[in-house]
Amino acid sequence: MTDQRDAEGSGASRRDVLRTAGLAAAAIGATQLTGQAAASASAAVDPSVRLDVVDFVDGFYVLEARARVAGTAMSAPLRMRDGLNVEVTSGAGTITEDPYTGDILLKAEVGEQISARAVIPADTAAARAAGVKASGSVGGDSTPLVTYPGDLADPEARVAMAGGGACVSALSGESIGALMTTMAAHMTAERQDAVAAVGANTVTSQLRVRAAVMGNVIPFSATHREIRWRHARYYGSDDVLGLLRFTYQQDKLSAVTMDSLGGASFFPASAENVLYCRMEMLDLGGSAISTDPMRLPNPSMNWPVYATPMQLSRPITFYDEAAPDREVMQIIKNELRLYDYNGVTIKKLAAKTLASGVLKTAFQVTNQTETPFTGRWMMIGDHTDVTFASTDAPLTLGPAGSKTATQVVEVNAPIRKRLVSQRVAFAVMSLSEPAVLGITPITFKFPGA
């Protein structure tokens, strides 16, 4: 059983909920806004500014403003420091900017229905960043954002989960053969034989996956909540494709939407997880993305997410990033659920935030099973190591009771200065049977922020 305490040493109730947090997952990725959040889009006119809620931290709603100019995609997030104006048009709330990151922060009064709009004045850095060349200001409509119900209490305020599972997948023999022509040089002979054996056939197999995910719950109202999945790492193993790593597509949002069914508490709730994903084929050397989302609806779920299984509603296909018309793999069937894993213990030995922009941590990891552990450790969350150079590596442990059953892992993760709290989670996962997983979250503040 993992030690599921965060940096503040939260108590048994949080640990009891996270105790069950094994995630049977082969679905990963991101989603376009759904539910109430979709209503926050501004009118479809060009040029226009879209204002949206993307996170909830320390009682602040984190907002994001993007512009759309005729013939272009949405801009990068715009900043108030560059001249952007954001104003509350109804309800009691105040808008500020994180002086370090430029995040737009909304502090709302409990029970207030907040609407706001964003305006890009002409001849400002924000206008230039958005590609707006209009002589006058460009603004979006007043957008209903939230009806603040008050802060959520743990454990419903955030999630940090690690787990594993499998799904039914199908590989295109023709596509894999095409991939092999450019990748064979660095493949082992065993891997080349496995790929060649596919031939011109479509091969169906069980894709084994391990996952570590975390996120904050955004209370849009007393009856509607969302989690925007930004932080996750998934690893899978396929007989043909070899070792796979899954992450979210960064140009799309990931979210699970939850609507209360009207009981005495928020749960049970109807929910839908809509996911896009990117797959790296670490043995073959290529990558693929799903252009259509995985949709996993649930008419009645309890907390935490996936405590009630969620089923893939229809198959999705991965396409080669280097050749977008080339199909690589199709996920045919998938289920997300929680398990209780007891095969590993994680003890946090150190966690220190340095003003130089480094989170120095150390963890003691012990295998509690009779089988040697072969897998990976990783740190996900609010760090800036986008290439995983210092936050992801192989991990090998001996069987329980052996001299090699325990290992100390030191992680020095680069971080950014931010006004509000930040969170990371250290996770371990086996890539062979039995499924052995664990996760330990840490909440921290940047010194002097």
Overall description:
It is a single chain. Helices cover 8% and strands 48% of the residues. It has four helices and 30 strands. With 449 residues, the chain is mainly β. The strands form six sheets. It has an eight-stranded antiparallel barrel. It has a four-stranded antiparallel beta sheet with strand order 2-3-6-5, with no helix packed on it. Strands 4, 7, 8 and 9 form a four-stranded antiparallel beta sheet that branches. The protein has three domains: 12-20 and 341-444, Immunoglobulins (Immunoglobulin-like, Sandwich), CATH 2.60.40; 43-140, no CATH class; 158-339.
Helix share bin: under 10%
Question: Describe the biggest sheet?
Answer: 8 strands, antiparallel, barrel
Total strands: 30
Tally of separate helices: 4
Instruction: Determine the strand fraction and express it as a percent band.
Output: over 45%
How many structurally independent domains?
3
Average pLDDT over all residues: 83
User: Distance N terminus to C terminus?
Assistant: 35 Å
Task: Indicate the radius of gyration in whole angstroms.
Answer: 23 Å
Q: What is the approximate shape?
A: globular
Oligomer: single chain
Strand order of the largest sheet: 10-11-13-14-17-18-21-22
Taking pLDDT < 50 over at least 5 consecutive residues as the criterion, the unreliable ranges are: 1-45
Q: Please identify the structural class as seen in this structure.
A: mainly beta
